[in-house]
Amino acid sequence: MSRPPSTVRDEVQSSEPLLDAERGRSTRVDGEGNSVRRAEFRSRSPVTVQNNRNRYALAALMLVLSLGSFVLQTETAQYIQRDLGWNKAYCMMQVNNMPSILDMILQADRSSHPQDMAHPFYYLLRCIALVTTALTIAGSTWYIAVNLTTPSDLTAIYNCSAFFAYAFSIPLLREKPQADKIISVMIAVVGVLVVAYGDNTNKQEQDGSASTRLGGNMLIGVGSVLYGLYEVLYKKLLCPPSGTSSGRSVIFSNTVCACIGAFTLLILWIPLPLLHWTGWETFEIPTGETAKLLSISIFANAVFSGSFLILISLTSPVLSSVAALLTIFLVAITDNILFGRELTSAAIIGGLLIIAAFGLLSWATWKEMREESEKEATDLTSDIEDHDD
């Protein structure tokens, strides 16, 4: 008796081969055993195709969620710091990361499978510490450099992390250099530069001394490199294998996101009293409108963190990094609609360049994923034919 289709679809696991010699074999076998094996391969092919479709649809959904939540987080964070005067950069970064631990509670009832309890704890802990450290340092450089350099330099340099994500993907993920991907990343970087410097006629940006601006640019450059490294390290160390179903990828990504939040809660609170005692950032409990908007910002960051990690898991750090650049254009449009800020020609041209780069990179990534799926299907066919012989 064959199992229901939902059971077959949901039980694909990273630790279990897609086709096992003993798994799912029917009790009815003919004299040579050939017809049964070939029929089972054909019955699995539609499931594989459906899993790929689910993967693409889920990736598209995560893209929309990550872009929308990032825009919401950016707008609320800017309003809190600029208009309400609650300028507590490190504290805001800390509280924004903590709610990720709620993902672990939400996934607890779905993690009762015995294999989920067999994950190597200390390996996961080391990987979480490494990835979270890279992310925290990268984020901290942005908050420090914001007062040292110009907004244009800050935007342009930090968002070059897409280039570094691709550079790190080659040695760490063994990704082959491809002309279409390189061109896509370069177009995206050019788009960011156009947005940052295209209409840079504000002389107030030249107030800082040259040495201070250079130091800020070098600092944010380090942050850009580390953020690209963070995305690639997450893909290498904390993502399930490509054969894992999209549902299990979501659960695992949410668990990792929760672990990052737990690490932030347990370890990264230590600088808060030090910053308070030194007077660099006096701790104040937010109240009134500030507390309400901060709650919205925290919720938006939790949605962004979870959806962005899932997007990396389902696609690649390069595609996810370039996709994140779309928020530059979306934030500019939102500022124009909500606050009446001018939507400059540079923002429009740069945004269109980023959109074009994302479209080209999406096509290249989809083509690569399709070729890998076809190659896996061919390998499975060869293995079955060899076994039959």
Mean pLDDT: 74
Estimated helix fraction: over 70%
Radius of gyration: 24 Å
The succession of helices and strands, N to C, reads HHHHHHHHHHHHHH
Biggest beta sheet summary: none
Please work out how many helical segments DSSP would assign.
14
Shape: globular
Low-confidence sequence ranges: 1-44, 104-118
SS content category: mainly alpha
Q: Strand portion, in percent?
A: under 5%
Number of strands: 0
**How many structural domains?**
1
First-last Cα distance:
27 Å
Concise overview:
The protein is mainly alpha-helical and 389 residues long.
Architecture overview:
The protein has 389 residues and is mostly helical. It has one domain. 74% of the residues lie in helices and 0% in strands. The protein contains 14 helices and no strands. It has helices spanning 5-10, 34-83, 89-97, 102-107, 121-145, 151-158, 161-172, 179-197, 210-237, 246-266, 271-278, 288-314, 317-339, 345-388. Helix 2 (34-83) packs parallel to helix 13, helix 3 packs across helix 12 (288-314) and helix 6 packs parallel to helix 9. The longest helix has 50 residues, at 34-83. It starts with a helix and ends with a helix. The relative contact order is 0.16. The chain crosses the membrane at residues 123-144, 156-173, 182-198, 210-230, 251-272, 318-339, 345-366. Residues 122-196 form the EamA domain. One of its GO terms (cellular component) is membrane.
